[in-house]
Design a protein that fits this description.
Blueprint (H helix, E strand, L loop, with lengths): L15 E2 L1 H5 L6 H10 L18 H9 L7 E4 L2 E5 H11 L1
Antiparallel strand pairs: 1-3, 2-3
């Protein structure tokens, strides 16, 4: 059962959010993806832009986690983490 997002909430409380869903990700068009495959670096599949919900860089976010100023992620696997929507909304409320 899905939880509704209230007016003052940016994140659905019961959902898990991966890093690009929080800090955003740039669009990668087909041409750039092809060039990346040839070089062996960067995003190798095209994708649409993912808008940032919290205006902070990846590095800035991890610095805040280390300093105890941002919620820690939940480990989903050996190389996969996500954040609980309720933790993110709580953090946003404290920022007001």
């Amino acid at each position: 059962m899905s939880q509704k997002v209230h007016e003052n909430q940016v994140f659905e409380g019961s959902r898990l959010y991966r890093l690009p869903q929080i800090v955003g990700a740039r669009e990668v068009d087909r041409e750039t993806a092809d060039e990346n495959r040839e070089r062996g670096k960067g995003r190798k599949t095209p994708r649409e832009e993912i808008p940032a919900r919290i205006p902070i860089s990846r590095a800035g976010l991890y610095l805040k986690i280390k300093a105890g100023e941002f919620p820690s992620p939940v480990r989903l696997g050996p190389r996969t983490v996500a954040w609980r929507g309720c933790d993110l909304n709580e953090w946003l409320e404290k920022q007001k």
